[in-house]
Amino acid sequence: MSTSFRFRGFSSLAHDERVTARIGRWLGIAFTVCFVTGLISHFIQHPTGLFAWPSRPVNLYRVTQGLHVISGIAAIPLLLAKLWSVYPKLFSRPLVRSPLHALERGSILVLSAAAFFQLFTGLFNVAQNYPWNFYFPAVHYAVAWVAMGSVLVHVAVKLPVIRTGLRKDPDAAAKPDDHFGLSRRGFLRTTWLTAGVAVVATAGATVPLLRNVSGLSWRSGKGSQGVPVNKTAASAGVIDAARDPRWALEVVTPSGSRTFTLAQLAALPQTTADLPIACVEGWSQSATWTGVPVGDLLRAAGSAPGAEVRVISLERGGLYATSTLPGEHTADPISLLALRLNGEELDIDHGYPCRIIAPNRPGVLQTKWVQRLEAR
Question: Which residues form the Oxidoreductase molybdopterin-binding domain (predicted)?
Fold first, then answer.
């Protein structure tokens, strides 16, 4: 590559601070939305005493986790455009001019590495493809803090430059010989268009209205009984146990315990509710569920709605073979031990003989093939 071509490439208006500042602003918004919604999902699955998640509105988790994945997808073209706008500075000399400059370069290195790790491993997770040996949720959560910490350091160091770049008019004319390629505004519009196409092409997994135009959506409503299935009964190793005619649900409370056969559960008063399955991967699907309210089962066993319940599946050894249903959810009358889906008996891949379906919960906590409920 000749010296003159290298100079002309570095003088492109795409490398102007006005471009970098504007793309950086939207990238920062996307990162922040992704980080906050990711924390929400993490703390729902790993609750602490400082965090409580409500049972209503029933679609809240569907929205927050959809935003988590959509903002992550939007961040990919924004990050690539941001790096393109600043890459000539990597060739500036000297490499380090001051301690503050060293901090700036270090924050860019850490930010870029953490951001690419988060975004691309997140895409693999959406595709349920795990070409690594680490436990994705734990590592994804830890690196999220590293990424956001480096974002804050980078913004703090570059704040004067960011302010200057945002104040300048991106349409301001440049000398004809000073640049080639797209104008500043043209590069920005191309970036917004690319990010918008990426979102629309994938958002149908979360937004049903976009499913007919989201060609890259990874889930639809075409699964068994109209609801996608992430884990089948065969992969969970529960087919024989789930179909065993001797199966019975055990409900254990501090005041006593009861067992219910499937016929006895079906004979109890039933509740029907329209609730979504909202997966941590960002896809969601509404369905009509019918079953026995968990609160009614607690009453039948001598307890009361509002008790925390440990849900135990027939599955053995799976990461989500057990879950905890908080008291607020057991007190909600549409937290169900579901027996039917969309008017039909549960398919075995959806949890036959019964499963938990509670409002405003991640799909991984809507335990299938339930064997035992333990009230605490």
Answer: 244-375
pLDDT band for position 5 (cuts 50, 70, 90): very low
Burial label for 324, CB within 10 Å (0-12, 13-18, 19+), is: middle
User: Which fold is adopted by the domain 226-375?
Assistant: Sulfite Oxidase; Chain A, domain 2 (3.90.420)
Q: Do the domains 226-375 and 3-210 match in fold?
A: no
316-365: pLDDT as tens digits: 988 889 999 999 999 999 999 999 999 999 999 999 999 999 999 999 99
Chain segment 170-204, per-residue pLDDT in tens: 777 555 445 556 788 889 999 999 999 999 998 88
Report domain extents, the chain: 3-210, 226-375
**CA–CA separation, 367 and 279 (whole Å):** 12
Residue with tokens 């993490």: 42
